[in-house]
Design goal:
By secondary structure, this protein is α/β, with parallel strands linked by helices. The chain has 14 helices and 16 strands. The strands form three sheets. It has a seven-stranded mixed β-sheet, sandwiched between helices. Strands 10-11-12-13-14-16-15 form a seven-stranded mixed β-sheet, with helices on both faces. Strands 2-3 form a two-stranded antiparallel sheet. Helix 3 packs across helix 5 and helix 10 packs across helix 12.
Length: 406
């Protein structure tokens, strides 16, 4: 069946500039991804879709040197870039478009083959084949595919910035219009998050590659290899706010990356941290919040805060879910561990029936953690944030005790 595998990649990542050409064992990470995809058995066409920005000239040049299909498109409107790339390479309505991101370099060729084959078997009946979008599989182990006619509709109709930037949310929100087959294991399969968003993620991927070499594993590598690679995750506990944690709060809050999505200036002094911690204590006592410190059991250090904001005007049985986590722990499951404990407490001891939260549409890690906790998207809120420039949109997400829609 005719299929295009389109890889989005760029050099201008804010958290890891130049990451697309960062190396593992002497080869750029994109080379590792193309090697994986070269083992697909479906007669696919693989396309590197980067941007027209000057910063991406070296990436396009490297792709051309390797003999890859290279397309250059819109820098910010990634949905349009996918559509334009598909058109440039002759997509027809029934052509399968497989979306791959350049920071997920261990794409399993057998999973891609399976998705394409399912499209062929159910041609005319389904428009989308993908893995589950919850946490049954390790973050970075996925396949996402749709027909070109579906991509064309999304490109024509999607107007929200979040949908344009992330390509597929518009499609996944409407299962009736875009029927899909979802690949989902019956039990959760544990493995490390291997998406490369930061230099620390690159080091984790180097360790994974070293593990494969030690095991004398040969490419292509598969999901089972990722699941079989166990990484040490911190054991998390919760403690009520106390001034003894103020120095810990200062340590993680002064990080600009932490402050960026919290829309506040990094803390600069012990006094700032003491005021913040005391405010949490006072809010808990007054019933305005029900908050906890997230503790790394191995060190006893506070690495974040999590809990509920209890507004007096809130409808009975609902509360806002809030959290902040040290940047150093973003690539672990620390927030998911803590979140599960707090949500169980909320639905149990507090008697909540609905928990809601908002997060920046660009905060992919936060969104993925919330999805792993079972939160569902309810709405996109335009102009939610006060930023003078850039994206002001927020996602409103919710979790209900009975699992029903709000």
């Amino acid at each position: 069946m005719n299929a295009l595998v389109i890889i989005q990649a760029r050099m201008g990542s804010r958290r890891f500039p130049g990451k697309s050409l960062a190396e593992i064992d002497g080869k750029p990470i994109l080379w590792c991804l193309f090697r994986q995809l070269s083992y697909c058995a479906s007669g696919i066409t693989i396309i590197l879709a980067t941007t027209t920005e000057e910063i991406d000239d070296p990436l396009a040049a490297y792709g051309n040197e390797q003999g890859w299909n290279v397309f250059r498109g819109h820098p910010e409107d990634v949905l349009r870039r996918y559509y334009d790339a598909a058109v440039a390479f002759g997509a027809k309505p029934e052509t399968v478009i497989v979306r791959v991101t350049g920071d997920d370099i261990w794409a399993d060729p057998k999973m891609i083959d399976a998705a394409i084959n399912l499209h062929a078997s159910f041609a005319g009946c389904i428009e989308v084949v993908s893995t589950s979008r919850s946490d049954e599989l390790p973050y970075g182990v996925y396949v996402e595919s749709y027909t070109f006619r579906t991509l064309e509709i999304a490109n024509r109709e999607a107007t929200q910035l979040f949908d344009r930037e992330h390509v597929s949310p518009y499609i996944f929100r409407d299962q009736l219009r875009f029927p899909r087959i979802e690949i989902k294991p019956s039990t959760k399969l544990i493995g490390p998050a291997l998406s490369i968003d930061t230099p620390e993620d690159l080091e984790r991927n180097k360790a994974f590659y070293g593990h494969l070499k030690e095991e004398d594993a040969k490419p292509p590598y598969h999901a089972a290899d990722v699941i079989g690679f166990t990484s040490v995750a911190p054991e998390i506990s919760l403690a009520r706010p106390h001034v003894r944690f103020a120095n810990d709060v200062l340590a993680y809050s002064r990080d600009p990356e932490f402050a960026r999505f919290k829309e506040l200036a990094p803390m600069s002094s012990p006094a700032d941290a003491e005021i913040f911690t005391q405010q949490l204590i006072d809010d808990n006592v007054a019933g305005r919040r029900d908050y906890w410190m997230i503790i790394d059991e191995a060190t006893g250090i506070a690495i974040g805060t999590i809990g509920f904001i209890i507004a007096s005007s809130a409808r009975q049985g609902s509360a806002d879910f809030g959290f902040g986590l040290s940047h150093r722990y973003w690539s672990t499951d620390a927030l998911v561990q803590a979140g599960r404990k707090v949500i169980e407490y909320g639905f149990g001891e507090l008697g909540l029936v609905r928990i809601q939260t908002t997060t920046h549409t660009g905060n992919t890690l936060s969104i993925n953690c919330l999805k792993a906790l079972g939160f569902k998207q309810e709405a996109v809120l335009p102009d939610f944030y006060d930023a003078e420039t850039g994206n002001k949109e927020a996602l409103l997400m919710y979790l209900s005790k009975n699992g029903e829609s709000a």
